[in-house]
Amino acid sequence: MILRTAVTIKVSIVEDDDWIRANLAEQIRASEGLEFVASYATGEAALAGMRTAASDVLLMDINLPRMSGIDCLRRVKGLWPSIHVLMLTVYEDSEKIFDSLLAGASGYLLKRTPQSEILGAIRDVNRGNSPMSGHIARKVVRYFNERGNALRAIDKLSRREREVLEHLSKGIAYKEIADVLDLSIDTIRMHIKGIYAKLHVHSRGEAVAKYLHK
Prior knowledge:
55% helix, 214 residues
């Protein structure tokens, strides 16, 4: 009979708030199956310390002094691709969520998440899952639904309409677009009217936003 030992997950923290950093470290030390490795107050300190203190999971704050948490995340994933980085932050705006995910974050939790859920998320992310606070996950789903809708709408445009929209997205005036495409200004206006109808928008700004969101 082979006895299997429980996997110990090595965890480090990057957080500039002394109280939060100490409290998280205490909770990790007290949790079975988790091993507290180190904590750092800055991204620079984390990058230096992690060269000799390997971890499986890294809890990362976004709002760090000097180097941001997202910049630190990019560098961490470049140096140690297999580490799981769990963003733990007060920010819940879409831009920071998606910047974090694109930079390589494996999960995204708000700091107000109960401690028991944060500890559970550490175990989840180490198993290859992507834990997120409930409404953060809904933002992610909504983003990809909107992106899918934008792609389907763009597909309805004719080749000429796409050309016109591409020029609109670069801030080019109608008259200049007409000159570049060798069309009359009235024809450009006709194409723009068709673009608005197919994308279900009412202004140049909305049309460009949907085009760039694709």
